[in-house]
Amino acid sequence: MSLGLLTAAFALSSSAAFAAPGEIAVIVKTTNSNYWQNVKKGATASAADAKGYSLTFQGPASESAIADQVSMVENAVTRKVAGIVLAASDPDALVPALKKAWEAKIPVVLIDSLVADSGKRYYQSFLSTDNEAAGEQSAKALISQVGKTGKIAVMSYVAGAGSETGRVGGFKRYIEKNSQLQIVGTYYSQSQMATALNQTTDVLASNPDLKGIFGANEPTAVGMGRAIAQAGKAGKVIAVGFDGNEDLKNFVKDGTLYATAVQGSYSMGALGVKTLVSLIEGKKVAPFVNTGVVIVTKANVELPEAKNVLY
């Protein structure tokens, strides 16, 4: 290696050896996702509002690169950052790194995803979607358009998954308590768009009097929307989706979906940093913060409240 390269390498390693004063390390599942870039926007906005703090934002090339994320957390601990906001890619693999942060008295706020119970003592707050509340909001949006009688269907994803149990359970319980709507079936796509498309096509064909339908996660809702469009039922069967990618945003804009419930990725970043700053400053924080969902319809799809969460 040439002297110039050696000097450059030393300068790089030296600059990375110690954190800047008041540095907050935000470490997400991957930087290659519009969802996580929305988290970054929120985190950056909160860091700018907090006096005396700076922000670094990192994530692996993919969500499956768990070892890379572990290394990022360990490096942040070694560099003695002021605090860490983490979206853990794996519930078990990150626990040892979080223990190191705890031992180093570096506060940690988790967003989006929990770690295993063995890591509970190593973080101070968790911010995420309250899936049961999100399911209830989705049901309320559907009832607002279809009324309280008739047939509806639920297009779900993986039976028994934690988010599915809360989200679809909350949806169904709200429907049962607040309407006389009949749920003709719950169908599980295994989070496969093509499966959801085929299942929705079958449901629409076998229930010509269907009034409404709920697609409970992104690939399921996209498949549901495509089936509705292909069947010529856009606007005739009231559809509510979940999550907010480009396909779902366009389905809302063209009327294929009445609404889609979008998780607050911007809020996760903004409130995650705000909560961490409170911890650093010795203030009490809530152990759980619901970052909520935004019900995106034609009425608000172009407004900041929706643009901050769509990805």
Detailed description of the structure:
Residues 24-284 form the Periplasmic binding protein domain. Residues 1-19 form the signal peptide. Belongs to the bacterial solute-binding protein 2 family. It is found in: Cell envelope. The structure is a single chain. The chain contains 11 helices and 12 strands. With 311 residues, it is α/β, with parallel strands linked by helices. The strands form 2 sheets. A 6-stranded parallel beta sheet has the order 2-1-3-4-5-11, with helices on both faces. A 6-stranded mixed beta sheet has the order 7-6-8-9-10-12, sandwiched between helices. The longest helix has 17 residues, at 162-178. The radius of gyration is 22 Å and the shape is elongated. The two termini are 43 Å apart.
